[in-house]
Write a structure and sequence with these properties.
The complex is a heterodimer of chains A (540) and B (289). By secondary structure, chain A is of the alpha/beta class. Chain A has 2 domains: 4-239, P-loop containing nucleotide triphosphate hydrolases (Rossmann fold, 3-Layer(aba) Sandwich), CATH 3.40.50; 290-370 and 437-538, P-loop containing nucleotide triphosphate hydrolases (Rossmann fold), CATH 3.40.50. Chain A has 21 helices and 19 strands. Chain A has helices at residues 44-52, 54-57, 79-82, 102-112, 117-130, 146-158, 176-193, 204-207, 228-238, 245-252, 261-270, 275-302, 348-355, 388-391, 394-399, 415-427, 450-463, 474-480, 498-502, 511-516, 525-532; strands spanning 4-12, 21-28, 33-37, 62-69, 72-73, 86-89, 164-168, 196-200, 213-218, 221-226, 309-317, 323-332, 337-341, 363-368, 372-375, 438-442, 466-470, 483-488, 491-496. A 6-stranded mixed β-sheet of chain A has the order 6-7-8-3-9-10, sandwiched between helices. Chain A has a 6-stranded mixed β-sheet with strand order 15-16-17-13-18-19, sandwiched between helices. In chain A, strand 9 (213-218) and strand 10 (221-226) form a beta hairpin. Chain B has 289 residues and is mainly alpha-helical. Chain B contains 9 helices and 2 strands. Chain B has helices at residues 9-12, 15-31, 35-51, 55-79, 103-129, 132-172, 181-205, 225-247, 264-278; strands at residues 86-93, 97-102. The longest helix of chain B is centred in the middle third of the chain and has 41 residues, at 132-172. The chains are: A alpha/beta (540), B mainly alpha (289). Chains A and B meet through helix 3, strand 6, helix 4, strand 15 and helix 16 of A and helix 6 and helix 7 of B.
Chain lengths: 540, 289
């Protein structure tokens, strides 16, 4: 008997013109690990909320079809009753932890399921051990990082041992290390505890290797249901934006795409692109990579005097607290596109705030050669008016490609459009405002699908201004940046070309680089295809 | 302001006792008419805050509540027609008409403002020293939803503060004209509503809507020295507050002429109040969790 069954489910949010779910039918078996893929707005979150009973009980709207979870129909049972079967984890950990300490949070969730005091205590201890969060239990939640908060929220979801766990892009706010840890944790829970996992995720390369089944949504419809290898083969023709870099690399070499780094390496070996062949291409590719690095370094040196931003020994020390930045030296030249990477709490956002003069260093100096425009993490914070045209002038809207949307409410825009509108707000009208010498963006690709990322890259390249981007997304960095600065504990620990910084590691590396083991410094599928075919000119 | 567990006798007391102790201070702040005893209640509150390690939080609260005191005093002085001792004649003012500021109206306004400061400070002390999670457990059998609402509201204060800070930062990054206050108010209200919806959805999927209480009841804790100390302190505080009210020791009237006894009995009551409130803080054994 299936754990969950959806039959011809159609759902429209109150006031919406078209359905968010359109005739969706599927069944989930116990113990499956399912990845839910699709572009932003395709219906992934709505589907997860349907499993939880929030659709239609919490959101209202028009609901058709039938959903059964553990023998309970969601028409007759609300989210509170369904919580005995299904646990849900959403994107933002801030609003998912409602009590003061992780222990209280876990106890609260367990007590809601009617467990006795002794059972609650045991469930809390076991969950904390399973999620390696026993040292967090009595810490105030305000002191926890985003990753730790997300772990607490996951613990509260799992403490009552639901048979089905639905997760809506839980890694979108986490750094690559915490994100990979969370996926590994889910896989272990799925294998050890027979928990059925449904994971909605944008960065498919992170999770396809771990899953048993992939569901793809498009405009509210279920357009693919199968295993991850089949999904990649299907996506090559039907949905290219969902193709992972590893799959694109294999397809570029004429091989059948497979998920995961390990299987991709094996496929390369079987296809005749094994270590010996790679080494031959690699030596040529290194020539190209080194040439590119030298060219970039030369450009930095020539433009040193006309720097758009110069940070000299910048410290940011909290009163009665730690130092967030510890002697950062950083210089950006005109037109340079620089990515700032590092774990959550490494100091990336603080560094951007110093660049834009929102903060003053406690020691050191920050000099900018003009206006610095800063787009913070949440574009919604910039949008306070009723119509798009009230937020920014016609020239600014045209510059970010939003001409024609002037009369719309900012909340009615898609995620990517809202971000472009916020960018227009900080850039200003080209006719009136001083052109910024530097544009800083704080995690602009968070929760974005690949199509929206491509649009952002094109937009920033079109401006031609120097750009400093804090991000956790190595694929985006490889596609966009000319230079990568890696921060750790407030210090710069690496500063070089993307191929230097992103090709050798595990977490701060693209999938292509991980498949090739960093050979030749290739970061993107196209580069790797050229490298493995022995085409040294591909990067020269 | 938000709760952080600290090594202090008040934090070490169980939530029901700490809450009762704050309620005793609140009672004194509400019923005491005499400014000397009201002032003593404020000293109790601030002293307790310092001894509990939350003095800085209380100082922040005072920073915005003291201007409130001055505002209340000024408004009362300008609009009240009572009192016989004129200390300033403004003559005819637009809207207000003939305006004479009297000593009695000024003092009465100041006492009203002082009462407001006491109440706000006690509220701040409560949120900094009483564990909201324990309060939730305490009240879940009586009024689960109300207790949860109060707890979540406390938890959300720092989240919303950070939201407001982010919104302000984003507005500083705008290239052109800054938006009006109405637009900002609308945006921040919408943000609060969004947060509230997210929290509500989380509570729903955690089974809050169908919360089932196990018949076995909760855990039983033995009474600590701090529980007993603050219980006695709360009883004495309440007793002194009620006794001074009934006996007339703390009598105060402003109109038509000021009458505020400041004799030995009033001063003794104030001293007893302060001692009763602060003595439990002297015992610092077993205050770490």
């Amino acid at each position: 008997m299936s754990l969950a069954a959806l039959s011809a489910v159609t759902y429209t949010y109150p006031g919406a013109a078209r359905p968010a779910l359109d005739s969706v039918s599927l069944e989930l078996e116990p113990g499956e690990f399912v990845v839910l893929a699709g572009l932003s707005g395709s219906g992934k979150s709505t589907l997860l909320r349907t499993f939880a009973g929030l659709v239609p009980h919490f959101h209202g709207g028009t609901f058709g079809g039938e959903v059964e979870l553990g023998g309970m129909s969601t028409r007759a049972h609300g989210p509170g009753e369904l919580a005995a079967v299904v646990g849900s984890l959403f994107q933002d950990p801030e609003t998912q932890v409602v009590l003061g300490t992780p222990r209280a949070e876990l106890e609260f969730a367990a007590e809601n399921h009617g467990l006795a005091a002794a059972e609650v205590a045991r469930a809390v201890e076991e969950t904390a051990l399973a999620l390696a969060m026993e040292t967090l239990l009595d810490r105030p939640v305000e002191e926890l990082s985003g990753g730790e908060l997300q772990r607490v929220a996951l613990g509260a979801t799992l403490v009552a041992r639901p048979a089905l766990v639905c997760l809506d892009e839980p890694t979108s706010q986490l750094d690559p290390v915490a994100g990979d840890e969370l996926i590994g944790l889910l896989r272990r829970l799925n294998e050890d505890g027979e928990v059925t996992v449904v994971l909605a995720e944008q960065r498919l390369e992170r999770c396809l290797g771990a899953c048993d089944r992939v569901l793809v949504m498009d405009a509210g419809r279920l357009v693919f249901d199968g295993d991850s290898q089949g999904m990649l083969a299907w996506a090559l023709d039907a949905a290219p934006t969902l193709v992972t870099p590893g799959a694109a690399l294999l397809a570029g070499l004429g091989l059948e795409p497979v998920p995961g780094v390990k299987r991709a390496r094996a496929a390369l070996r079987e296809g005749g692109f094994g270590p010996s062949e790679r080494a031959a291409g690699g030596s040529e590719r290194e020539v190209g990579g080194a040439r590119r690095a030298r060219r970039l370094r030369g450009r930095f040196a020539r433009s040193e005097d006309g720097a758009v931003l110069r940070m000299t020994n910048v410290w940011h020390e909290l009163r009665d607290g730690p130092a967030i930045l510890r002697g950062v030296d950083l210089t950006l030249t005109p037109g340079q596109r620089v990515a700032l990477m590092g774990r959550n709490g490494a100091g990336k956002s603080t560094l951007l705030r110093h660049a834009a003069a929102l903060m003053e260093p406690t020691r050191g100096r920050v000099q900018a050669a003009g206006r610095v425009a800063l787009l913070l993490q949440n574009p919604g914070d910039y949008l306070v008016h009723e119509r798009v045209e009230q937020e920014a002038g016609a020239g600014a809207l045209a510059a970010v490609g939003l001409a024609g949307l002037e009369r719309r409410h900012p909340r009615d825009l898609s995620g990517g459009e809202r971000q472009r509108l916020a960018l227009a707000v900080v850039l200003g009208d080209p006719q009136e405002a001083e052109r910024p010498a530097l544009i800083c963006l704080d995690e602009p690709t968070r929760g974005m699908d690949r199509a929206a990322k491509d649009t952002l890259v094109a937009l920033l390249e079109q401006f031609g201004t120097a750009v400093l981007i804090a991000t956790h997304d190595p694929e985006f960095v490889a596609a966009f940046a000319q230079r990568v600065v890696l921060l750790a504990d407030g210090r710069v620990i690496a500063d070089g070309s993307p191929s230097d910084v992103l090709s050798g590691g595990t977490y701060f590396a693209t999938e292509t680089a991980r498949i090739l083991g960093g050979a030749g410094g290739a970061l993107l599928p196209g580069e790797a295809v050229g490298l493995l075919r022995g085409d040294a000119g591909v990067l020269a | 302001m938000s709760y952080h567990r600290r090594a202090s006798p008040l934090h070490a007391a169980r939530a029901v006792i700490a809450m009762g102790w704050c309620a005793a201070l609140l009672l004194a702040g509400l019923i005491e008419p005499n400014p000397i005893i009201l002032g003593a209640t404020l000293v109790c509150t601030l002293g307790a805050g310092v001894l509990a390690g939350v003095g800085r939080s209380l100082a922040r609260t005072l920073r915005w509540s003291l201007p409130m005191l001055v505002t209340i005093m000024l408004i009362n002085a300008l609009v009240s027609r009572n009192g016989l001792t004129v200390i300033w004649r403004f003559g005819d003012l637009p809207l207000l008409g003939q305006t004479n500021v009297t000593l009695e109206a000024t003092v009465y306004g100041a006492v009203l403002g002082l009462r407001a400061v006491v109440l706000v400070s006690v509220g701040a002390l409560y949120s900094a020293t009483v564990d909201p999670d324990e309060v939730l457990k305490l009240f879940r059998s009586l009024s689960f939803r109300s207790a949860l609402s109060a707890t979540v509201a406390t938890r959300m204060v720092p989240v919303l503060t950070r939201d407001a800070h982010r919104l302000a930062e984003a507005q500083r990054c705008r290239s052109g004209r800054q938006p009006g206050r109405l637009a900002l108010l609308r945006a921040s209200t919408a943000g609060v509503l969004d947060r509230a919806l997210d929290v509500a959805a989380t509570l729903e999927v955690r089974g809050y809507g169908a919360a089932r209480k196990h018949p076995g009841g909760g855990e039983h804790r033995r009474w600590s020295r701090h529980d007993i100390g603050f219980l006695f302190s709360a009883l004495v505080l309440s007793g002194v507050a009620i006794a001074t009210l009934i006996s007339g020791v703390g009598a105060f009237s402003a109109y038509p002429l000021l009458r505020a006894p400041a004799g030995a009995r009033t001063l003794s009551a104030a001293v007893v109040l302060v001692l009763a409130a602060l003595v439990p803080f002297a015992d610092r054994r077993g205050i770490e969790r």
